[in-house]
Request: fold
Amino acid sequence: MAPQVTLGLFSMGIGDRFCLEGRAQLRSMKKALELGVEVIPVWNKSNREHTIIGTEPASTRAEADEAVKAEGWKLPYFVDADHINLKTVDRFLSACDFFTLDVADYIGKPVSAEKEKQFIDELSHVLGSLRHPAFESDITLSRNDLELFARKYLFGLLEAVNIYNYLKEKKGEGNFITEVSVDEATQPQTPPELYLFLAGLAHYGVRVQTVAPKFTGEFLKGIDYVGNVNAFSHEFKSDIGVIDIAKEKFGLPAELKLSVHSGSDKFSLYPIIHQHLKTYNAGVHLKTAGTTWLEEVTGLAADAKGLKIAKKIYSQAYERIEELKKPYETVVSINTANLPLPSVVTSWNSDDFVSALKHDQKNPKMNKDFRQLVHISFRVAAEMGEEYITALKAARQTIEAHVTDNLYERHILPLFIGK
Ligand SMILES: [Zn+2]
Reply:
């Protein structure tokens, strides 16, 4: 088997809509390194984001390379083709070395009875009882569980295999990180399903390094977790156990770990995740793309000239909310009655705007509906073109301070370092 590029124990997906914050983002990882904690940066940008903004993956690659050079980063770093499938993978091939194979859309699609039977026969040896310190009780899997699993996931599994084989042919085995995701599915993926999912990937030769299940609860864009924190905790540690077993039993890469597509800022989950990682000596990949865009707008709003642009983005987004929500239907939940009218926002000063937007849950002025709307309004900023980019450049210092501090203090410290 070809040697494989590796991601390490801790890694973080940092999206950057307009490709200007790479250095500010990387500085947060340098701060972690000063404390002796390696967090590997992965610049992720989905096909959806590239399409909305009108950028190509090469721009993300250039940003990452430049940031790494300018900041003197010596550890590995990656550029992630986030949420791709066979139809969209091609434009990412040369710029990326991390691929997130998204098979959520294929859940529940049928395969032929013959294929299904073959899969069930071939995988029947993985059934039985599973035991791990992270489980509250043993997990037992029957042939019936495998049949139900095949009906739900086999189509998607085979699709992941197809994309993986395509990548292997184009990039060469071992030259890229492979993630398989179902995080945008409508139903949570249970730990037994995750186990069978990994068994299936291993069976077909996919050397998966990170896996993103759909966790229980809602992961809405830009706001904290909505759901039962205890249920999440239980599920997360069971998933860690399942991964341990799958690595040992199926010979999957030793660094295989969970990937949490956070949708940004799941602060109430961070202490729980940290505790489980520590207890079970597990790694994690955290994707948190939109948080940097929100800090960009926060930084603009904190700047006297930039405030005008921030207000302009909001007032246009307010008028176009239905259109902006469309690509994010399952991952935003905006109560429009709670959105301030643009005519009110016009009179806001920097502090009013920053207080409403900044994710400080102790601040009574923070408005999570306002935050979610701004989260999905980068299309408006993209359409402003040079006007927006010029404003970003003019408020560089303020914005970069917001970007670095946000990633370091609100994400890296609580999740990876436990502070
Ligand atoms: Zn995702």
Remarks:
- The first helix runs from residue 22 to 34.
- The beta strands are 10-13, 40-46, 78-84, 98-102, 128-130, 139-141, 177-181, 210-212, 257-261, 284-287.
